[in-house]
Known about the structure:
The structure holds two protein chains of two kinds.
Chain A: H1 3-15, H2 21-35, H3 47-54, H4 59-72, E1 77-83, E2 91-96, H5 103-110, H6 117-120, H7 141-145, E3 146-154, E4 160-167, H8 168-171, E5 185-189, E6 196-204, H9 210-221, E7 243-246, E8 249-250, H10 251-258, H11 260-264, E9 270-276, E10 281-288, E11 293-302, E12 309-315, H12 325-338, E13 340-345, E14 348-350, H13 363-369, E15 381-387, H14 408-431, H15 450-462, H16 472-547, H17 552-580, E16 585-588, H18 589-607, E17 610-616, E18 621-625, H19 627-648, E19 654-662, E20 665-672, H20 679-682, H21 708-718, E21 722-726, E22 734-741
Parallel strand pairs in A: 1-7, 13-15, 17-19
Antiparallel strand pairs in A: 1-2, 2-6, 3-4, 3-6, 4-5, 7-8, 9-10, 9-12, 10-11, 12-15, 13-14, 16-18, 19-20, 20-22, 21-22
Helix pairs in contact in A: 1-2, 4-9, 15-16, 16-17, 17-19, 19-21
Chain B: E1 3-8, H1 15-19, E2 24-27, H2 35-45, E3 49-53, H3 71-84, E4 92-96, H4 98-104, E5 117-120, H5 121-126, H6 128-151, H7 155-158, H8 163-168, H9 173-179, H10 185-197, E6 203-204, H11 206-213, H12 222-231, E7 247-248, H13 249-260, H14 269-278, E8 298-301, E9 308-310, E10 314-316, E11 330-332, H15 333-338, H16 340-343, H17 353-361
Parallel strand pairs in B: 1-2, 1-3, 3-4, 4-5
Antiparallel strand pairs in B: 6-7, 8-9, 10-11
Amino acid sequence: xxxxxxxxxxxxxxxxxxxxxxxxxxxxxxxxxxxxxxxxxxxxxxxxxxxxxxxxxxxxxxxxxxxxxxxxxxxxxxxxxxxxxxxxxxxxxxxxxxxxxxxxxxxxxxxxxxxxxxxxxxxxxxxxxxxxxxxxxxxxxxxxxxxxxxxxxxxxxxxxxxxxxxxxxxxxxxxxxxxxxxxxxxxxxxxxxxxxxxxxxxxxxxxxxxxxxxxxxxxxxxxxxxxxxxxxxxxxxxxxxxxxxxxxxxxxxxxxxxxxxxxxxxxxxxxxxxxxxxxxxxxxxxxxxxxxxxxxxxxxxxxxxxxxxxxxxxxxxxxxxxxxxxxxxxxxxxxxxxxxxxxxxxxxxxxxxxxxxxxxxxxxxxxxxxxxxxxxxxxxxxxxxxxxxxxxxxxxxxxxxxxxxxxxxxxxxxxxxxxxxxxxxxxxxxxxxxxxxxxxxxxxxxxxxxxxxxxxxxxxxxxxxxxxxxxxxxxxxxxxxxxxxxxxxxxxxxxxxxxxxxxxxxxxxxxxxxxxxxxxxxxxxxxxxxxxxxxxxxxxxxxxxxxxxxxxxxxxxxxxxxxxxxxxxxxxxxxxxxxxxxxxxxxxxxxxxxxxxxxxxxxxxxxxxxxxxxxxxxxxxxxxxxxxxxxxxxxxxxxxxxxxxxxxxxxxxxxxxxxxxxxxxxxxxxxxxxxxxxxxxxxxxxxxxxxxxxxxxxxxxxxxxxxxxxxxxxxxxxxxxxxxxxxxxxxxxxxxxxxxxxxxxxxx
Amino acid sequence: xxxxxxxxxxxxxxxxxxxxxxxxxxxxxxxxxxxxxxxxxxxxxxxxxxxxxxxxxxxxxxxxxxxxxxxxxxxxxxxxxxxxxxxxxxxxxxxxxxxxxxxxxxxxxxxxxxxxxxxxxxxxxxxxxxxxxxxxxxxxxxxxxxxxxxxxxxxxxxxxxxxxxxxxxxxxxxxxxxxxxxxxxxxxxxxxxxxxxxxxxxxxxxxxxxxxxxxxxxxxxxxxxxxxxxxxxxxxxxxxxxxxxxxxxxxxxxxxxxxxxxxxxxxxxxxxxxxxxxxxxxxxxxxxxxxxxxxxxxxxxxxxxxxxxxxxxxxxxxxxxxxxxxxxxxxxxxxxxxxxxxxxxxxxxxxxxxxxxxxxxxxxxxxxx
Lengths: 748, 369
């Protein structure tokens, strides 16, 4: 359009009774560009596409960015719902219950590129959350995800909500000026108390597969650190946190599914905590209850640029010598999938650090070169570095939101993290007496081979002298020494044979238990299945039986007998189902004992057994264990006690379960006033297949397999605890004590 | 009048018979066939209610490749038919063994809320009368809803309450949901069951009443109290009331204020029990599972143990998507400490996580120490 044409069209528009203000603005802009003596930047509409499609690489990153915005707005719940998402063209709705935006905020802030509002107001108004987004471009993730966006925002106290429509692909085309594109804004009625923001993204650019959802969940689950971070503001403790629900599935559920804490972290060999203090000194705290390490260390080097930060990681060695054998495979898989050191800024994940393919600390590289021999690959660590904007101003995220700018501060972050990891891994290797580096000299294993012992003895006999000069005394001495050596070899061989035998016994026990377990599982399932049919028929027969003048007491006896059977079947079925879950958790001792007593009270009442329980303190919790294992412990103790009580023929049989906390131990004592354990058997009761009981088919405990207490001992040992026969309290004759560590929070 | 029920199961071990009573007879005459064929046969039978087992493919003898569907598939087809033909909208209840019910339906994990109610086969045998009563109530409720829609009566009539009283209940959008002309009878029934009858809110069940009275529900003679409440016109008599015994909360509150001469929540359990005893009721005060005292201000029934508990000694359960007039579930501190709530598949709201941490670590102790 020529200058004259522009002027003419502007005059015509201004002369109209209802002029088009948008057109006037556009014509004025064009006129200014033609007539002004100065030049200015203008923004092409397709810049929006750059901010979305080209800067936000992955679709799951885009979802994370939008969730971060909800977090910044003090939301406590974010609902993410996909519709028809399997192919392109679906719909995504992200709604939160945050503060929402007024029309003014939308115009001033949401519609303004690269706004500085989050720098100006670094914390959220209600929970004082340190805002995660800073560049003011996170909202364009919506463009990355779909072709159209409907933004609905509700502010508490207002009776109207605001709706804005964006048609990214149709409107924001190359060649158009960004400020000439108008997006329709409208209002709608709403309840005054309703607040929050809803993003309706239509015509999704990608199809979403289960694998893609898994990626989103991973990015959301790891969006916040796996370990508690120190509060960065005094008011942080009032923040109730925020939950994310995707297609009806909440993060608490998914967290359980992924089971990072329960299936993985608890098997760590050690915990490494480190920090850089205000003077740049790096402090490390290494702790490992399994190796009895609890050490502090300060690195020689100081880190003066990066600022105060903290680091925490769990260290894993996937070997049966340091974790229960049955978890090695699963833990190793979790390590491969989720291991690594992540970086969190203001509590939010910075990608790609700690991703599966990322090796920002060169741990995989060095492991491949065998620079270090102790296990120190990415999969051996699960941890994070926590940085924040106030303490680490030089650690800046790139605009793509995928990485930190690699400046001097980042180099220090890298060096600090790597040095902490190297020191800790080497220290652990040293305690485990493992060869730490390929060049380590003088390394000597604890285990000595018989041939080594013989060689050493012969060498000492030779003494560098000639055999021809040997006297009779010398030969006697040789004979004596050789005899001593043979004796030592024999001892070694005997010990090895005995260990092999005990392993074979143990293996046999496991085989027996495995086949027993399968049979019990099938049996209990069938019992459960039969229960409905039997109960239904009993109920039907009852009415007929009673109408024919039958005695109710006979029916009740039949019902009681069946209830006993089904109750036990149900208990075993529940035990089997509980064991199917490999989840480890800190278990309430009172809760387990209450359920146990509830299960067997009717049975014991019939036997005339007085049942007494005492859990002090009532909040006592075990370390993370399988709940079914504690049930098994109690069940094994009970079967032993009932056998003993029955054979004693007492008038007032009594059982007492008492649990107490002693230092860092949960101590459970199971006592009865039966005949007790003969002194000669005390040393053998925990051996596999050892039993003194006679079979009694009428008893709940059945025929003794000699495996019960062995299993109890194995369970205790698996958690670093023990089981022993101890002195009973007054009025009781037998007491077995089971101890395992208390929960982490209850340790002193 | 005797209603006609239809029972579908691949292994009926007497459930049809046990579900039947004098007012309702179940038939199990339709055997399994392909899904569309089965739906057609059910329609032709025209039952007043359908009871269906969750698994229909467990009987190896009756197993057929074409029959590898479950109850959800059948219900889905029938519900779709009901959209087209409102006269064919009837209640559908699911029966199954306890494990499947607890895994799939508490809370409801299925994509479609297709069943009006679900029962374990154990509960049918043990509580035969209750289940029969509820099945009949569902049939009559559906008929009442259909009648109400045809005649275009006030919503309040469905609940047998005056228009003004209904208005005072402030149920907000709920009434609008019911009055929407396009929604079928089974959806209206579901709204009423899930939001009014089966949840504590505008109605109270016996456990809620014992909690509000601060008395032990097992050791007190609740029947005497429920009779008194019934005599005072407090009981709910609207749709589904014949299957589920409920009282109006607003009427109960008004009666309680008059009966106790004070706001009930300002009295301790012991004080409430004393007044009840003075007026001739045989009751025992509830004992707080946390403080072990009856001098507590009992307010609600724990969602885990069903025993009276105090607002201050309980935490919020995760209970989203409930309307404002429904009480959010709460779990007493004792059930939190002992993890008993997990057995009921309850979860704790993240808002109360700090309290849970304090209970589990022992920094918040039983007895209020």
